[in-house]
Design a protein that fits this description.
The protein starts with a strand and ends with a helix. The protein has one domain: Alpha/Beta hydrolase fold, catalytic domain (Rossmann fold). It is α/β, with parallel strands linked by helices. 37% of the residues lie in helices and 19% in strands.
Length: 260
Amino acid sequence: MSAILLDGSIVHYEVLGRGRPVIFLHGWVGSWKYWISSMQVTSTSFRAYALDLWGFGDTAHNELKYSLDEQVKLLDSFLNELGIGKIAIVGHGLGALVGMKFAIRFRQSLDRLMAVNCPLSFDAVNPRLRMNTPQELTDWLSNRSPEASTALSDAAKADARAVAASMTGLQSDNLFGAFREQDVPCLLVYGEKDQAITIPTYEAATSTFTHQIILEGSGHFPMLDEAIKFNRLLTDFLALDSGASPGELQTKEEWKRRVR
């Protein structure tokens, strides 16, 4: 277990590998743990970091730090503290929103973003995600395999106020619209069977630098439900040249079948 002090509070993270930095940011259910498989795969070519955001996992609970803006400050402070330069972000749900907000504020520090099961508007969020306890959400969204149970074992540590604060930020901002103006290469990945997030239409989601792929056998946790497919897509995305549109992934027959 690794941890640093930011603003006098503990922030937990884990790191594997060497190379260009990739930051993994978890969603509303769980912690860094469900990225372990993805971190192991990417660590052969990249330096993979996974953080617990404020109010989740083993990072400090502090209601004053739960807004999306404060979570972005956590990420920026973390990068500065460890001397990490330009990054790729792989964010799931909440982590994807933090990644988009980070791009708006620190465009020069972000090379690309994979946003997994990310709501593009407040209306795309199932009310159960906003209202249920962390354990109820785990029971609802997990595939309940032994592997998923282990990967989501930190779900009960989440502070429900952190979930609520992020939802307030999503409701008040035109986050996706402002993000798209940054022209950050972004791959939107959705599990077709996700009950928590409504998948946007292909037309609403895509642009020159933004592309969408749907994994047909996945629910809310593609990195757990279809780990091999997800990790292969992740490595393909990270292997693209800097500045390249993720739409180039469309040329691969493997992903053509999953585009909507």
